[in-house]
Write a structure and sequence with these properties.
This protein is an alpha/beta fold. The protein contains 13 helices and 17 strands. It has helices at residues 7-10, 16-30, 50-63, 79-90, 108-114, 133-142, 196-209, 249-252, 275-286, 292-300, 304-329, 354-365, 391-405; strands at 37-38, 102-105, 125-129, 148-149, 154-155, 159-162, 180-184, 212-216, 242-247, 260-263, 269-270, 273-274, 335-337, 343-347, 367-368, 370-371, 382-386. Strand 11 and strand 12 (273-274) form a beta hairpin.
């Protein structure tokens, strides 16, 4: 009889956002008259900008000609996109990243999960708590997480580093050793950011322990303060201990188009092997590359017109974040994030549980949130709200919550 990967049987319930969607569907099924405003899943609502769609149209026309047709492309990404990324995302910030260190993919979520393929299953993994569920679940699927405790809401082999209000939602390097370290800044879900000094402490820890930092900077475009680093590679020593993931999803609205990239420096070696070569081997074996049309659209993000247009969209979402943060803080609720990130981390009132508050807001205000408990034990007592909705929906959602809290 065939044997299955029994690690899947250890996973608790369903994936967080699938459960959120299920509960919303159940509620709307019982209340068909309700108009639900979703401040839950971090999906963008602004359309692709003209520079991107025009580039994609031109690429489609190319594909319809014998001269311009593209079949299988390079699994690592076309040179025109890798070179644009190296120039505009890194060189302009004084960071030396070569095109050969960049691997174009179908998104940061995929790469954050797939990167484990090049590491042994006996490595100890450290995660921030609360944490983006993909980091935890994919390591559990691979067998690195051990056993799950329903009572404690955690895996026994993972090293959870609490990120709570008392430490500014920032994880300090632990006394224990961890070989793989997931960091995400600006953070999903708390909206916290990291200073250069804070990241330098992690880089020093990783180099001293032979660890690898898996740095998710998918939300770097939302940073507003000039002293906050956008990349782990702005930190001295990071090239020998870090891998970085980025995405066009939130930066340029590619959630439905799918494109991102991972940076693996040539200097990064572990176990006598260059990790750039291992990741290249993995990608060329398991991945056929991002479609030519999509990569042409992504490259257009770096044109003068494209950059101006996507920054206009990012400004739109930043204003939404301000509306949420200021509107709910005005009711006396504690709100965090929403300044250098598109997420607001809201402490639930009167000691309500995360899922309890989720149900309460859904029923009383017809607004969907994301329960903090779904992001880890330290997320209990919080909910995450996203600024990626429409401006009018965002304003209405805040007003509905305010009214519900006031007993209206």
């Amino acid at each position: 009889m065939v044997k299955i990967n029994e690690n899947y049987l250890k996973l608790p319930g369903s994936y967080l956002f699938s459960e959120v969607a299920r509960r919303i569907s159940a509620y709307t099924g019982a209340h068909p008259e309700a108009k639900i405003i979703k401040l839950s899943i971090g999906d963008v609502t602004r359309p692709l900008v003209p520079a991107v769609t025009q580039a994609m149209h031109r690429a489609v026309d190319e594909m319809g000609t014998a001269e311009g047709f593209h079949g299988y492309g390079p699994e690592q990404g076309y040179p025109f996109l890798r070179e644009a990324i190296a120039r505009f995302d890194y060189a302009e910030r004084g960071v030396d990243i070569q095109p050969e260190e960049i691997f174009v993919s179908d998104g940061a979520k995929s790469d954050c999960g797939n990167i484990g393929d090049i590491f042994g299953t006996d490595n100890r993994v450290a995660v921030c708590d609360p944490v983006y569920p993909v980091y935890v679940d994919t390591n559990a699927m691979a067998g690195r997480a051990g056993e799950y405790s329903q009572q404690q809401g955690r895996w026994d082999r993972l090293l959870y580093i609490p990120c709570v209000a008392e430490n500014g939602f920032y994880p300090a390097p632990p006394a224990e050793r961890a070989e793989l370290i997931y960091l995400c800044f600006p953070n999903n879900p708390t909206g916290a950011v990291a200073t250069r000094e804070q990241l330098k402490a992690w880089v020093d820890y990783a180099n001293a322990n032979g660890s690898v930092i898996l740095f998710d900077s998918a939300y770097e475009a939302f940073i507003t303060r000039p002293d906050i680093p956008h990349s782990i590679f702005e930190i001295e020593g990071a090239r020998t201990c870090a891998i970085e993931f980025r995405s066009f999803s939130k930066t340029a609205g590619f959630t439905g188009t799918r494109c991102g990239y991972t940076v693996v420096p040539m200097e990064l070696e572990r176990g006598g092997a260059r990790l750039n070569s291992l990741w290249n081997r993995r990608q060329t074996t398991k991945f056929n590359g991002v479609p030519y049309v999509v990569q042409r659209g992504a490259a257009a993000v770096y044109t003068p017109e494209g950059r101006a247009q996507i920054m206009e969209n990012i400004g739109y979402y930043r204003r939404n974040a301000q509306v949420i943060r200021e509107g709910l803080a005005g009711t006396g609720l504690e709100c965090f994030g929403g300044v250098d990130a598109p997420y607001i981390w809201l402490r639930t009132p009167e000691g309500m549980g995360s899922w309890e508050f989720f149900d309460w807001v859904l029923d009383r205000a017809n607004v969907a949130t994301t329960p903090g408990a779904g992001f880890g034990p330290s997320g209990e007592g919080y909910v995450r709200l996203t600024a990626f909705g429409g401006a009018e929906d965002t304003r209405q959602a805040v007003e509905r919550i305010r009214t519900a809290l006031q007993g209206g």
